[in-house]
# Entry
Amino acid sequence: MTQSLVLNPARLMPSNPIVRDIALRLYNSVSKLPIISPHGHTDPSWFAENEPFSNATELLIKPDHYVFRMLYSQGISLASLGIKSVANGVKVESDNRKIWRIFAENYYLFAGTPSRMWLDYVFVKVFGINVTLNANTADHYYDHINAKLATDEFLPRNLLDRFNIECIATTESPLDDLRHHK
# Structure
């Protein structure tokens, strides 16, 4: 069964209608201003190299510790998600579509989490998908997202412009050499 994915514009606002109206007015008064992000789970090489993202799995699952840790907490191995661990000799899944399907089959686990709110927003507003992610829609999502990622519109620097991001902090390792920050 396919379920529509619709976002309530007031989903993050207070439930009290009077306070919600004030919050919406305040939000609308600043929503078009440039974004100065003090914390971003982004790799600075994305913007320095400005190459297309390879696929949905490499962009939305493997680099997002909130996503793969949730799945791991429910008994799904990191290796099956394409995540290397310190265990030697463990075969790590390399089929990104298969990894995406595991994610989609278990997407219900994210209900009520900030990750789910963020991912649903990305699916609807960024990629224009209007059905809920699950086992039945996994391939549709994967193919649709990958087709979008192959376009110039989805190059990293074009996304910065699209979302009016003036500055974004990164969260790379303290051992990184910072060459991509030039």
Remarks:
- DSSP finds eight helices and two strands in the chain.
- The first helix runs from residue 17 to 30.
